[in-house]
């Protein structure tokens, strides 16, 4: 699709240098308001069990509030993202612990072949956890992309100009 990306009402107003008429601005603002559910996003997970997720949830809410997109439409995505963020942190911590275990094996008094087997087993666990972490990060990236595309698609759906008077068909004149 050719053309420039649509700007929100707030972006247009804050630029203060535009060629848009007052009627077009009012029309745009009215249609942006129609896209909102008027319900606020609520935290749907246990804040005590997921403290880092709650911090991320609040950070995301600040961002969405700043652009006036803190609408319940995005509730599931924001909550799911925050919980996945916490789970990714847990996986990172677990990987770090296993890496520390690999380093401790050097200091243990074991037969060399037993040390090698122990390291291999721990490395297999680290690799499995790393795969889970990469899957989690990929899912988080997809949520981020989907939210950004949803917001921009909603803005593109708003007509840039209010509907004008219909043009007369020249064939009707004859």
Question: Could you outline the blueprint of secondary structure elements for this entry?
Answer:
Layout: H1 9-15, H2 22-34, H3 51-66, H4 75-105, H5 112-157
Could you explain how this protein is built, in words?
The protein is mainly α. The chain has 5 helices and no strands. It has helices at about 10-15, 20-35, 50-65, 75-105, 110-155.
Q: Characterize the overall form.
A: elongated
Low confidence ranges: none
* Helix content percent band: 55-70%
Radius of gyration: 26 Å
Number of strands: 0
Tell me which oligomeric state these chains represent: single chain
Output the helix-strand order.
HHHHH
In short:
The protein is mainly alpha-helical and 174 residues long. Helices cover 65% and strands 0% of the residues.
Features:
174 residues; mainly alpha; 5 helices; elongated
């Amino acid at each position: 699709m050719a053309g420039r990306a649509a700007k929100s009402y707030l972006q247009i107003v804050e630029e203060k240098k535009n060629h848009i008429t007052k009627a077009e601005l009012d029309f745009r603002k009215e249609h942006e308001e129609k896209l909102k559910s008027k319900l606020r996003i609520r935290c749907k997970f246990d804040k005590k069990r997921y403290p880092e997720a709650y911090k991320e949830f609040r950070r995301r809410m600040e961002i969405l509030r700043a652009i006036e997109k803190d609408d319940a439409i995005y509730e599931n995505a924001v909550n799911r993202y925050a919980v996945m963020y916490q789970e990714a942190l847990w996986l990172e911590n677990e990987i770090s612990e296993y890496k520390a275990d690999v380093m401790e094996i050097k200091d243990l008094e074991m037969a060399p072949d037993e040390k090698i087997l122990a390291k291999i087993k721990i490395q297999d666990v680290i690799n499995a956890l790393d795969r889970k972490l990469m899957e989690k990060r990929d899912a988080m990236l997809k949520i981020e992309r989907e939210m950004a595309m949803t917001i921009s698609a909603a803005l593109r759906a708003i007509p840039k100009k209010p509907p004008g008077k219909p043009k007369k068909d020249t064939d009707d004149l004859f």
